């Protein structure tokens, strides 16, 4: 369904007015748990994957698979720790409504 000129104009007017009044909110970083350890593990995994694709020897493939397992473990561990800390913060602030809702 295509919008006509009038509907397009109305949509632009509403969006522009809302932007002027409310402002643009920057997108939040969803992965707050993603840190340098995760980044370095992924970089190493990608290098070994590239090497394994270029050189299909058993040793290169084994190295890549081992690094892939380690990377996945590190990512899961960091995410789990972040979620655990977030839950603890929420539990601590359960009687302080302002902090409690900010944590949710």
In words, what does this structure look like?
With 104 residues, the protein is an all-alpha fold. It has a domain at 34-103. Helix content is 76%, strand content 0%. It contains four helices and no strands. Helix 2 (36-54) runs antiparallel to helix 3 and helix 3 (58-92) runs antiparallel to helix 4. It is flat, with a radius of gyration of 23 Å.
Question: What's the quick description here?
Answer:
This protein has 104 residues and is mostly helical. The protein is built from four helices and no strands. The model has no long low-confidence stretch (mean pLDDT 87).
Keywords summarizing the entry:
104 residues; mainly alpha; 76% helix; flat
**Arithmetic mean pLDDT:** 87
Residue windows where pLDDT falls under 50 for at least 5 positions: none
Largest sheet geometry: none
Q: What portion of residues belong to β-strands?
A: under 5%
- Global structural class: mainly alpha
Indicate the radius of gyration in whole angstroms: 23 Å
By DSSP (H or I, 4+ residues per run), the number of helices equals 4
The total strand number stands at: 0
In whole angstroms, the N-to-C terminal distance is 38 Å
User: What is the general shape?
Assistant: flat
Question: What proportion of the residues is helical, as a percent range?
Answer: over 70%
Task: List the helices and strands in order.
Answer: HHHH
